[in-house]
From TrEMBL:
InterPro entries cross-referenced by the UniProt entry: AKAP7-like_phosphoesterase, ASCC1, KH-I_ASCC1, KH_dom, KH_dom_type_1, KH_dom_type_1_sf
Signal peptide (residue range): none
Native organism: Monodelphis domestica (Gray short-tailed opossum)
Gene Ontology biological-process annotations: DNA alkylation repair
Gene3D superfamilies from the UniProt entry: Cyclic phosphodiesterase (3.90.1140.10), K Homology domain, type 1 (3.30.1370.10)
Positions of region (Disordered): 287-331
GO molecular function, one term: RNA binding
RNA-binding listed as a keyword: yes
Protein name as catalogued: Activating signal cointegrator 1 complex subunit 1
Ranges in coiled-coil conformation: none
Length: 331
């Protein structure tokens, strides 16, 4: 991380910078950062978006945090929590490890409670980004006719290109798992999973049905592309997805879904717009057919996962139009 270009974190419509003091590896834990941001002054305007209750002894605020992230707020030997409490003049009550529940902040000054809550939000968001994704938000592309067309494409590639460097049947996606990925999510407890389900249902009611007009959206996978710059050194080959009527309705739905999930805090925005594609070949499948489900996981201590590329130049020459029309319903 560059000092002059710190990582920015968006929380509840506001943007904070992430400042590192030091990074340590805790014993018996996987590279947990002993991170603590610079003290922040929190205005009353900032606190207006927080629910802070007044009690007989001062003020109180509850923060919903998955239990998996408690250790980052506690810190090594409780150092992070102690520092939070000391600098904000609050008391921070955290449930026992493994027990889901809210973190409760109490203090005599409302501003101190707001400051502690803000810093906890920044800590949680920062370490959430380091977790491997747990769920896909995607359109399923595994209808029977699509699977049949995909298997024909696979058969054609293996027939014509099996002698090309690195090309193998193990590189192909499982036909039953064909999908158009909209985004990835880190959902760390049942509450967040339920929240995501409710948000998706709300998106359906708010704009998906309206854009789709209550009818099926006819799309097609036509033509293929690759992820890197050199077709002789491919890692990922994907099918391009288009609306059959030439409209951008599928793109609009995908982009609005991402916008809604990003604003909720359940998803991180990676690109300006969703790239409509379906992975058909991936070198991660060479050693692990389920690798795509975890390809956002942090690199292991031994380094990044090694990939053996393949030469896809001949596949590009003869595969356009090999994958048939498919149907995606606006659900």
């Amino acid at each position: 991380m560059e000092v002059l270009r710190p990582q920015l974190i968006r929380i509840e419509g506001r943007i904070y910078r992430k400042n590192f003091i030091q990074e340590q590896t805790y014993q018996h834990e996987d590279e947990d950062d002993d991170f603590y941001g610079e003290p922040m002054e929190c205005s009353e305007e900032l606190g207006d978006s927080y629910v802070v209750d007044q009690t007989e002894r001062g003020f109180q605020c509850a923060v919903s945090v998955p239990s998996l992230l408690f250790k980052y707020i506690i810190g090594k030997k409780g150092e992070t929590r102690k520092k939070l409490e000391m600098e904000t003049r609050t008391s921070i009550n955290i449930p026992k490890p493994g027990v889901e529940g809210e973190i409760v902040i109490t203090g005599q000054q409302r501003g101190g409670v707001i400051s502690a809550k803000t810093r906890i939000d920044v800590l949680v968001e920062s370490f959430r980004r380091k977790q491997p994704f747990t769920h896909f938000l995607s359109f399923s592309l595994n209808q029977p006719d699509v699977q049949e067309g995909f298997l024909k494409f696979q058969e054609k590639v293996l027939e014509k290109c099996s002698m090309d460097r690195g090309v193998s049947s193990c590189l192909f996606q499982n036909p039953a798992k064909l999908h158009l990925t909209i985004g990835t999510l880190v959902l760390l407890n049942d509450q967040e999973i339920q929240w995501a389900c409710e948000l998706l249902q709300q998106c359906k009611e708010d704009f998906i049905n309206k854009i789709a007009g209550g009818k099926a959206l006819l799309a097609e996978m036509l033509g293929i592309e690759y992820m890197n710059d050199d077709p002789s050194m491919m890692d990922v080959l994907y099918a391009k997805v288009h609306m059959k009527d030439g409209s951008d309705r599928l793109q609009v739905i995908a982009d609005q879904l991402v916008e809604r999930f990003v604003s909720s805090g359940l998803m991180m925005k990676e690109w300006d717009k969703v790239k409509l594609h379906a992975t058909v070949m991936n070198t991660l499948f060479r050693k692990d057919p389920t690798a795509e489900d975890r390809n956002n996981a942090p690199a292991s201590k031994s380094g990044p996962r090694e990939r053996e590329s393949f030469d896809g130049r001949n596949i590009l020459k003869g595969s356009s139009g090999a994958v048939p029309e498919l149907e995606i319903r606006g659900k």
